[in-house]
Design a protein that fits this description.
The chain has a two-stranded antiparallel ribbon with strand order 1-2. It has a two-stranded antiparallel sheet with strand order 3-4. It starts with 5 loop residues before the first helix and ends in a 13-residue tail after the last helix. The protein has four helices and four strands, in the order αααββββα. It has one domain. It is mainly α.
Length: 131
């Protein structure tokens, strides 16, 4: 479920330009990513009834993830990345399980999105957030 629209992304978040044709697809993937890392805590809730700080941070988290996917490529959702090591002589290959100290799973989510969500309480499965 998309939590933002293109107007929010462009005018409020002021994200990097995204092709209008790709925007709906990337927005859906970004929203799915946010649902996944919050353990679907937002599904079925009315975001508009929550405190404005929570609303804004959830929306900015989606926008940050959307921008991340736009820049990193849609493959980031699947943890795709290029290998960190490749050699030709005496062939060697590394599958890129860790890059820059991050696992494949950690590279799927924008660090900025996680930062925005920390302020909402939705990353802690033991906490219920009410507006």
């Amino acid at each position: 479920m998309p939590y933002i629209d293109q107007t929010f992304y462009t005018d409020v978040y002021k994200g990097a330009p995204i092709d209008a044709g790709a925007f709906p697809r990337l927005l859906e993937r970004a929203s799915d990513s946010i649902d996944h890392i919050t353990n679907y805590a937002l599904v079925g809730l009315d975001l508009d009834t929550m405190h404005q700080v929570i609303q804004l941070n959830v929306k900015k988290a989606v926008a940050a993830q959307l921008e991340y996917l736009s820049i990193a490529g849609e493959g980031a959702v699947h943890g795709e990345s290029s290998p960190t090591n490749v050699s030709i002589g005496n062939f060697s290959y590394s599958d890129g399980q860790r890059q820059n100290g991050l696992s494949r799973e950690e590279r799927r989510i924008s660090p900025a999105a996680v930062s925005y969500l920390r302020a909402t309480g939705f990353l802690n499965g033991g906490v219920t957030v009410r507006g």
